[in-house]
Every structure is written in C-alpha cells, then in structure tokens.
Specification:
The chain is an alpha/beta fold. 43% of the residues lie in helices and 19% in strands. A 6-stranded mixed beta sheet has the order 6-10-11-1-12-13, sandwiched between helices. Strands 2-3-4-5 form a 4-stranded antiparallel beta sheet. The longest helix is centred in the middle third of the chain and has 35 residues.
C-alpha cells in the first residue's frame, strides 16, 4: 500500500518493536542491534518474521527465522536465499530510530560505518570492499606487531603494504563518490528541514605505498597502521558549523532525516522504485513547520511507516494517512 502508514499507541506498547520486525523481514537484520540473540523473546529459542506485500504489482513474501548461534534462515517468495545480503539486494528499506542520531553526534567510526553500508546499497559490486580493506589492515597490523617483536622481518610487510594501499585508495575513492552522490539531496532536504546551508564533506586522499613506507617506523612502534581510510571522517555541516560538535539536538535530528531522505531518492533512482521507509518517533521533537516539510518530502510512490504516540502529531495540513494502525498491549489493529 503506497502512502503513509501511521502507527499510533502509548509509549511502551511495542510500536518500535513492530517497525523493527518489519525491517528484519525486509532486510534480514535489526536497525537497532547486530546481536540476533536480542531479537528472540526471553524464554524462547527462536524468532520468526513473516511479511507479505506487493512489489511492482506482484505479490512478495519473506520469512526470516533467527536461532541464536545458527545462521539465519531467509526465504523470499517461498524460495530460500543464501543470506540476508541477497535479500537486501532484492528489497530496499531505510529506518530512522532515535539511535541513528549517532550518525551525526557519534564518533567518526559511526559515520564511516554508515558510509560503507551506503556504498553497498548504492553499488552492490563494492559491498565487500570495506571488509576486504579491513582484512588487509588486520594482516598488516599483525605483521607490524610480529616485526616489532622480532618474529618476522620488515620485508614480510611489503605484500600487505601494497595490498592495503590499493584497497585503501579504492575504498577512499568509492566513499568520496558516494558522498558526492548523496550531498545534493542532503543539501535540499536539510534546508527544507531548517538547516542553514547544509553540506557533507569527505576529503579523498587515497593511500599511496610511499605514505605507508614513510611512516613505517611509527607504525612499528605503535603496532598499528596510522594512515588510511580507516581513520577518515565525514563532516556533516550547517554552514561552517560541524553539527557533531556545534549542532543542537533538533539540528542533528534534522540532519539524520535529511540523510535518510537523500538516500531514499538515490536508491529510488537506482532501483526504479523508492525504498520502504520506517520512521520511528520522528515527529515528537520537530516543530510544526519541520513536521510539515518532512511529510511533504516523503517519496510519493513509496510506502512510509511512521510511529507516533498520537495521530494529533500530524500537522493539520498533512494529507490523511493511507492507513492508521493502533498498537496496544498484545494487540495490533487498524483504526
């Protein structure tokens, strides 16, 4: 069902759990945690999410079964798929939860992780590049520690240095290209949501073997590689201000929502259809103008699920939702 689905109910009745279950069913993982054990109800041995819907006028069904300590079982239209990554290649969904504010207010590692996941969604052929770089980095760091302890020669580092430089330059360029694609939409949606001169900045520097060789003594002393894209950051800006350090809670929230909307546009263009949007508690801390702007920016052809404690959170000027779902303890029903 295209359009807005509004999920309402008091705090603590399971609205976020409902969105989380939908995300698991579409993407194979939770937007809240990477620990599958946390998705299984206390006292139970397994969890299962089954979804049915329509995609491109054709019915689609998914089933994801989770048993802690075992690989997930994923089925799409009744047929098993190898892993959750294959499910994500078929179906697209983006989620906003309050935890996602960490993309702006958290440390650089959070933004690098977000950017690398974005890279995999925009260019599936590059999805493994961050992992390949991380493995090469781990091997070089292990070699540094062995050489420092006298268990290996410096010459043994050369192959890992060359591989790390190659993969690091590829990853740096891919990240820069992804930011360049995301930045225009972020600027438009960020401004619509009240951010002054919003912008994204990622400085591509590559990683040359000569740079690694020049700092070899320092790397040996520390036992870690001190240059490369594993140390880079993405600046999320409002004019000259870095919103991580100098943004209000409202501005940080607006920035994350602008990222979600910009990414939804990119994925919609790439795939020919907008992704499913799951927006948890986005309206409570936005003023009326920003709530109106957010709802107006939602993909017209897609489906968006928004949770709120009350239907009154929708501005009076907003179109009526296509469906209202009321959640109460132990019950989910349509209004």
């Amino acid at each position: 069902m295209p359009g807005l689905v509004l999920v309402t109910g008091p705090n603590g009745v399971g609205k976020t759990n409902l969105l989380e279950a939908v995300h698991v069913g579409v993407q194979g993982f939770s937007p809240r945690t990477r620990s599958d054990r946390q998705l299984v109800r206390f006292g139970e041995e397994a969890a299962r999410v089954s979804l049915s819907g329509v995609r491109r006028a054709l019915p689609v069904t998914t089933t994801v079964t989770i048993r802690p300590g075992e690989p997930k079982t994923v089925n799409l239209n009744g047929a098993p798929v190898a892993n959750a990554e294959d499910l994500r290649h078929e179906l697209a969904a983006l989620a906003f939860t309050p935890d996602r504010l960490a993309v702006v207010k958290g440390g650089p590692i959070v933004r690098r992780t977000y950017l690398d996941r974005l890279l995999g969604r925009l260019a599936p052929a590059l999805a493994e590049l961050p992992s390949e770089y991380a493995r090469a980095l781990g091997q070089r760091n292990a070699g540094l520690r062995r050489a420092r302890a006298g268990l290996s020669s410096r010459d043994a580092l050369a192959p890992w240095t060359a591989q790390l430089a190659r993969l690091g330059s590829e990853l740096d360029a891919a990240r820069a290209a992804a930011v360049a694609q995301l930045a225009p939409g972020f600027a438009v949606h960020g401004e619509t949501l009240g951010l002054p001169s919003p912008a994204l900045r990622y400085d591509e520097r590559g990683l040359a073997p000569e740079e690694l060789e020049a700092r070899l003594e320092r790397d040996l002393e520390r036992g870690t590689t001190g240059a490369g894209p594993h140390l880079r950051d993405v600046d999320v800006l409002a004019g000259p201000r870095d919103l991580r350090a100098f943004g209000s809670q409202g501005e940080q929230r607006a920035a994350v929502l602008a990222l979600v909307l910009a990414e939804a546009e990119l994925l919609g263009t790439r795939r020919g259809e907008p992704p499913l949007l799951l927006l948890d508690d986005v309206l409570s801390e936005l003023d009326r103008a920003r709530r109106t702007a957010l709802l107006a920016a939602l993909p017209a052809r897609g489906q968006t699920v928004v949770t709120s404690t009350s239907a009154d959170a929708l501005p009076p000027s907003a179109p009526a939702p296509a469906l209202v779902v009321v959640v109460s303890p132990g019950e989910v029903r349509t209004a």
